[in-house]
């Protein structure tokens, strides 16, 4: 063990604070700098659409599976989008096996809220035959390696996978009341907006850390997630308690998030083109 | 549809005794003690090993040897139909079996009172999932530096109209039986054997022989990969 590791083991708080005092983090980043993002599309060929996303060491895989379902009585003209996030003990020793933990459920809920509030898909597009057949898109996200900020990584993975989705054509024969699904997957989804989230850990009143690693998350005392659409409009803000944030700081965080949207969307678009 | 064409080739252009292309990598992540990724054709599996570490539940602790736990999970989009529950009965049974395989391979008495956890994640399945899981776990255990008696390699074989075929894909496996063999290649002893559907007694030997031969081929493949990894690592170390 080097002296640095010894120090980290015995005084983790002090060790961390010394880095922050010189405006750096233990991984060498500045406080408001994001990690490099790598997106690869079409990684799971058994899925209708899929993507693998890396934020530094954090790796998540999203696979979209499409199934035919019956629309509900209340909304006979709508299909379904069901996001689901899984955090296995494989990716970090903090998670236990068995039923999904609070964090995984919170993440699923977060993605669901973003997808609806940003209006990513028009659910009416997913309906093929009103009150009979509609598509149900299951967006399953699995974390493969956990190193903080799964919020952003999961959303980017879901967005990239949705843009990769190609559905088979469903034809309906009204006379015989029979539906047939084509073998080839040809129809892409009509994506209305492309929201991107940016997460910040709140360390103190003046210090915020962009794109936190697992270490940053454990040292910080609260998170704020800002979701901005590609046209610059703020569509979702998530701050589950923790340290209070002055409104001026919040404004600057939203500005930072807005700057990032275009860049990440370009990365996703580029990944999509590489496959084609 | 014909599994084997009149020319004697399979759908993907392999001969009956040919393995699919194996791609593997050791040491993907820092957090687990060992990790590995393997691709056998279209079957893709990731394995992570934690341990030897303290036993989580004290009543399981054994002061003579270590506890080995394996947990396998499949991502929802890995197969033809969406998997509703990541840990259904079948995956649980498989993970129990994988743990059993490594009971035979790990020098358990070297790690008294501790626990070794193997987590296997199936990203995509196309036949031979159990084999890919065993092979990935072996690599991850090697990367973690856990003492093993020998490598454990695994391979499947099937039969189609009197011809034994090696490393069957999902489609080929559905048409006939699927025999999965896990082997300690240097000792030549079989650790686990699993067959689905019926095989005729006269054909069983041919299928078994082919699967065993396949395990040896897998071993060559894994061994060269581990060697390359170690050389790479050693090169870095010697520069320091």
TrEMBL record, chain A:
Protein keywords: Cytoplasm, Exosome, Nucleus, RNA-binding, rRNA processing
A Pfam cross-reference name: RNase_PH_C
Predominant cellular place of this UniProt entry's protein: cytoplasm
CDD domains, per the entry: RNase_PH_RRP43 (cd11369)
GO BP field: exonucleolytic trimming to generate mature 3'-end of 5.8S rRNA from tricistronic rRNA transcript (SSU-rRNA, 5.8S rRNA, LSU-rRNA); nuclear mRNA surveillance; nuclear polyadenylation-dependent rRNA catabolic process; rRNA catabolic process; TRAMP-dependent tRNA surveillance pathway; U1 snRNA 3'-end processing; U4 snRNA 3'-end processing; U5 snRNA 3'-end processing
Gene Ontology cellular-component annotations: cytoplasmic exosome (RNase complex); nuclear exosome (RNase complex); nucleolus
MF annotations from Gene Ontology: mRNA 3'-UTR AU-rich region binding
Intracellular or extracellular location(s): Cytoplasm; Nucleus, Nucleolus
Domain Exoribonuclease phosphorolytic per the UniProt entry, residue ranges: 34-168, 195-259
Family: Belongs to the RNase PH family.
PANTHER family for the chain: EXOSOME COMPLEX COMPONENT RRP43 (PTHR11097:SF9), EXOSOME COMPLEX EXONUCLEASE RIBOSOMAL RNA PROCESSING PROTEIN (PTHR11097)
Designated name of the protein: Ribosomal RNA-processing protein 43
Native organism: Petrolisthes cinctipes (Flat porcelain crab)
From TrEMBL, chain B:
Protein name: Putative exosome complex component RRP41
Family: Belongs to the RNase PH family.
Compartments where located: Cytoplasm; Nucleus, Nucleolus
Superkingdom to which the source organism belongs: Eukaryota
Pfam families: RNase_PH (PF01138), RNase_PH_C (PF03725)
GO cellular component: cytoplasmic exosome (RNase complex); nuclear exosome (RNase complex); nucleolus
Species per Swiss-Prot/TrEMBL record: Petrolisthes cinctipes
Function, as annotated: Non-catalytic component of the RNA exosome complex which has 3'->5' exoribonuclease activity and participates in a multitude of cellular RNA processing and degradation events.
Exoribonuclease phosphorolytic domain sequence ranges: 19-147, 150-213
The keyword Cytoplasm belongs to this UniProt entry's keyword annotation: yes
């Amino acid at each position: 063990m080097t002296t640095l590791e010894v120090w980290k083991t015995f005084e983790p708080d002090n060790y961390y604070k010394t880095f922050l005092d010189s405006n750096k983090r233990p991984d060498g980043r500045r406080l408001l700098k994001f990690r490099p993002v790598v997106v690869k599309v079409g990684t799971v060929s058994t899925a209708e659409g899929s993507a693998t996303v890396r934020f530094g060491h954090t790796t998540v895989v999203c696979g979209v599976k499409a199934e035919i379902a019956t629309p509900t009585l209340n909304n006979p003209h709508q299909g379904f989008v069901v996001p689901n996030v899984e955090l296995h003990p494989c990716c970090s020793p903090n998670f236990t096996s068995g039923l999904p933990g609070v964090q995984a459920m919170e993440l699923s809920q977060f993605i669901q809220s973003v997808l609806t509030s940003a209006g990513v898909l028009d659910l009416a597009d997913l309906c093929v035959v009103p009150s009979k057949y509609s598509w149900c898109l299951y967006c399953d996200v699995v974390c493969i390696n956990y190193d903080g900020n799964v919020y952003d990584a999961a959303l980017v993975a879901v967005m990239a996978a949705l843009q990769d989705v190609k559905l088979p054509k469903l034809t309906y024969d009204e006379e015989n009341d029979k539906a047939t699904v084509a073998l080839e997957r040809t129809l892409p989804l009509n994506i209305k907006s492309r929201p991107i989230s940016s997460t910040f850990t709140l360390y103190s009143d003046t210090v915020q850390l962009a794109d936190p690693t697992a270490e940053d998350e454990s040292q910080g005392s609260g998170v704020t997630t800002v979701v901005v659409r590609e046209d610059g409009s703020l569509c979702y803000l998530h701050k589950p308690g923790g340290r209070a944030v002055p409104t001026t700081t919040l404004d600057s965080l939203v500005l930072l998030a807005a700057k990032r949207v275009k860049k990440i969307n370009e990365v996703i678009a580029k990944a999509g083109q590489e496959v084609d | 549809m014909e599994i084997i064409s009149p020319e004697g080739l399979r759908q993907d252009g392999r001969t009956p005794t040919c393995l699919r292309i194996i791609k593997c990598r050791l040491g993907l992540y820092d957090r687990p003690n060992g990790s590995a990724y393997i691709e056998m054709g279209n079957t893709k599996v990731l394995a992570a090993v934690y341990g030897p570490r303290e036993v989580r539940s004290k009543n399981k602790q054994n002061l003579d040897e270590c506890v080995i736990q394996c947990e396998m999970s499949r991502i929802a989009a890995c197969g033809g139909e969406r998997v509703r529950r990541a840990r259904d009965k079948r995956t649980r049974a498989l993970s129990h079996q994988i743990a059993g395989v490594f009971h035979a391979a790990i020098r358990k008495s070297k790690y008294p009172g501790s626990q070794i956890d193997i987590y296997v994640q199936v990203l995509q399945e196309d036949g031979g999932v159990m084999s890919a899981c065993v092979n990935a776990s072996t690599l991850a255990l090697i990367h973690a530096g856990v003492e093993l008696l020998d490598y454990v390699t695994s391979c499947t074989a099937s039969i189609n109209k009197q011809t034994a075929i090696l490393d069957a894909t999902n489609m080929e496996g559905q048409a006939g039986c699927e025999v999965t063999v896990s082997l300690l290649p240097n000792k030549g002893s079989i650790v686990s054997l699993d067959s689905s559907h019926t095989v005729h007694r006269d054909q069983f030997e041919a299928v078994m022989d082919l699967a065993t031969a396949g395990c040896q081929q897998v071993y060559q493949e894994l061994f060269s990969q581990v060697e390359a990894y170690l050389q790479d690592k050693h090169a870095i170390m010697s520069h320091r």
